[in-house]
């Protein structure tokens, strides 16, 4: 959010913009920033083996619980 706000302030559109980026450079800045954030998020994602292991652990814990204390 901070990055997109900064890009927006440096861009050409909206109230408070500073018109620093020339034509099409603002679009390239948004694309580059979005790709950086995307690849960073992908690098933080859990591996499928770890997800399966976590699901199995949750299922074992739920099976071991005698009563779930649900309303109704």
Distance between the termini: 42 Å
Work out the count of structural domains: 1
Series of H and E elements: HHH
Q: What share of residues are in beta strands?
A: under 5%
Count of individual helical segments: 3
Describe the structure.
With 72 residues, this protein is mainly alpha-helical. It has one domain. It contains 3 helices and no strands. The chain has helices at 2-10, 25-44, 48-64. The radius of gyration is 23 Å and the shape is elongated.
Present the secondary structure layout:
Elements: H1 2-10, H2 25-44, H3 48-64
Helix pairs in contact: 1-2
Offer a quick outline of the entry.
This protein is 64% helix and 0% strand. The protein is an all-alpha fold and 72 residues long. It has one domain (2-64).
Supply the key terms.
mainly alpha, 72 residues, single chain
